[in-house]
Amino acid sequence: MLRVGQVMSRLSVCLYSYHTIGDALTLMKEKQVNGLPLLSDQGHLLGMVTKEQVFEKGLEQYAAENKAADYLTTRFLPLKEESVLDDVWDLPFDIYPVFNSQEEITGVVTKYSLGQAYFQNVQLRSQELEAVFDSAHNGILAINRQGIITSLNPAAERPTRSTKEEAIGRFLSDVIIPTGLLEVVRSGIPEFGAKFQVGRRLYISNRTPIIKDGEVIGAVGVFQDVSEMEKVLQELQSVKQLNEELRTTVASSYDGIIICDNQGEILRCNPAVGRILEVSWEELLGRPFKDLVDKGVFQKNIIYLVKKQDGLVSILESSSAEHSLVITGNPVYDEEGKMAKIVINIRDMSEIIFLREALEESKQLSKKYQAEIAQMRSHQETSADIRSGSVIMKNVLELASRVSQVDSPVVLVGEQGVGKEEIAKLIHSQSKRREEPFYKLNCGSFPYQLLEIEIFGQGNALGNGKGKAGLLELANNGSVYLEDIGKMPLNLQGRLLRVLKDKMLQISGGKETVSVDTRILAGTNRPLIEFVEKGLFREDLYFSLNVVPIKVPALRERKEDLIPLVLFYLEQNNKRHEMDKVISPDAVQLLLDYPWLGNVREMENVIERLVVTARGKIISAKEVDLVLYEKEKSPLRAVTVTGVIPLKQAMDDLEQQLVTLAMEQHGTTVKAAEALGVNQSTVVRKLQKLKELNVGIEGGSIRKK
Ligand SMILES: Nc1ncnc2c1ncn2[C@@H]1O[C@H](COP(=O)(O)OP(=O)(O)OP(=O)(O)O)[C@@H](O)[C@H]1O
């Protein structure tokens, strides 16, 4: 800011009352000024003596010896050295005395020199502003009240796609598409942060009205190219998203994941680590990996191995919880090639083995179901071939013949293998439905959904042509024999009741109902009322179904049937295997004395085995004895101790034998676990241990004491 002190003429002299005008003009010439201050004898400023004043008085009155005081003018204004030029340049006097801050007169200044200095200063400032305006990184564009562009800097040329020369003087909307500036001129309200796009570039603009004397005379817009920033922002956004995805992936990984820095400090780990190592995974964060080794969670320090190897390392370990772990350490290098982090992956192999076993078993089960369904759906052989010599059985058969003449439901109660299904077939084959289909299905051997579809069918609710008729529909006008009816799920029992009562069948998967006339025959090993009492069977269904209960006695309760059945199966197997075997009387006696807990089915199997395995033509008592009592005599049925050995060794040995035997007898880990009374995972682990010791199923035979 320019001040008077910088522009004035400094004076070392002033005029006093004794000075003549000649002295004054000489001094003015000497000091190159147009006027001088005249002071009183006491040093007070009395006024100014100027050349102009001399001319004004007229030269005819001029005489050099005239007193300078005669030319004094008191029309003046004293100025201060520190006065700002902007404030004083247009004051009305031609010459001013100038004082310093101590109120001493220090010089004079004319209006002309003040004005000249002021305009030079304004010019300089304007040049500076122009330089700033032109070099500004942001685009600046100003319009007047009429919307005509008045200023535009080079940075504004890009978004307007025109040069300064082309743009100035044109209407705003002829030069640039966003015309928000016009709105600012109209409303007088500034607008900040408005975004607009020109081509591929994105700009943010701040628009401000230009106000003079309370009136809007134009508007200025400053806009910044934020395309790069936007790009960086988008990148940041996608990095954030990626980071989130990575975090979720690590967190939801079934394998345990631990991330350490190059010093082995745990930076991150996931919940699976907690599950596999049986530790609190959150507490591991920030701790050295080595702690886990020191505590025996790991046997080897994989961090050390990865650093030593300077590459990926995989090791196999058994954790404290008897899990087999595959631990993989993977180094991560920074841009300079230094190892920055180590990612450790922990895979629990026992779980994988367990899952593979479970999958294998469900595949087997599924195959079994498929086979059973295929067999069940094929048209059933209904000619019953029942042998009997007992009165009790005769009565049963007579009752069966009688009920075959009516359409009532029948419940056949009896132990496994007593011949319930045979009697069901007999009822059907003697009924008026004999020419119609007969189907059977075991309610206890299918999972719920499969059973539902097999009995009630599947509707075409999806309209994809995949509907399937159930047995109740397939056997329309015929009969269905539902084995193990007590095991039918409660949900399905209600629908079966509708079939019995209203002859209406509700197809699964839809609201569809069809009317059916299917006779229901049911079988159960335990009296149905027991299921009702336990809440497993609907009482209303029980009463509707149990119209004619037929109890089929166990084979041991009808000894008279034994000989006819033995002879029947002997003949049947001789024929089947093209043999001519007979049975010795003492062998028959053994068969008569046997309890036949598996009833007729057991006898059927025993006789076939005797026919096939007997060495001579006559089946001897010894051979019968071997077949009937073989299992009881097996040394494997009990543990026999023959000597003293360390208890731990004995227990390990026994455990190996039991697991191997259970697998041999039951085939799957699920069933073996059931027989051993342990969890399936325990069996899987023990088998894994046996495989490692090479004494498992594949590894060796069962060792006996
Ligand atoms: N009196 C009989 N005469 C000839 N064979 C019979 C007789 N009773 C049963 N069987 C035969 O015994 C086997 C078992 O019979 P069935 O399947 O009818 O028994 P079940 O009581 O229905 O058994 P489960 O309840 O276990 O299904 C079948 O092969 C059947 O042919």
UniProtKB/TrEMBL annotation:
Domain named PAC: residues: 309-361
Protein's GO biological process: regulation of DNA-templated transcription
Domain CBS residues, every copy: 8-65
SUPFAM superfamilies listed in its UniProt record: CBS-domain pair, Homeodomain-like, P-loop containing nucleoside triphosphate hydrolases, PYP-like sensor domain (PAS domain)
One Pfam family, short name: CBS
InterPro entries reported in the protein's UniProt record: AAA+_ATPase, AAA_lid_NorR, CBS_dom, CBS_dom_sf, Homeodomain-like_sf, HTH_TyrR, P-loop_NTPase, PAS
Domain Sigma-54 factor interaction: 386-612
Stretches assigned to coiled coil: 352-379
Keyword list, A-Z: Aromatic hydrocarbons catabolism, ATP-binding, CBS domain, Coiled coil, Nucleotide-binding
GO MF, any single term: ATP binding
Every PAS domain range: 125-178, 242-287
NCBIfam families: sensory_box
Stored PANTHER family: C4-DICARBOXYLATE TRANSPORT TRANSCRIPTIONAL REGULATORY PROTEIN DCTD (PTHR32071:SF57), TRANSCRIPTIONAL REGULATORY PROTEIN (PTHR32071)
UniProt name for this protein: HTH-type transcriptional regulatory protein TyrR
Source species: Desulfosporosinus fructosivorans
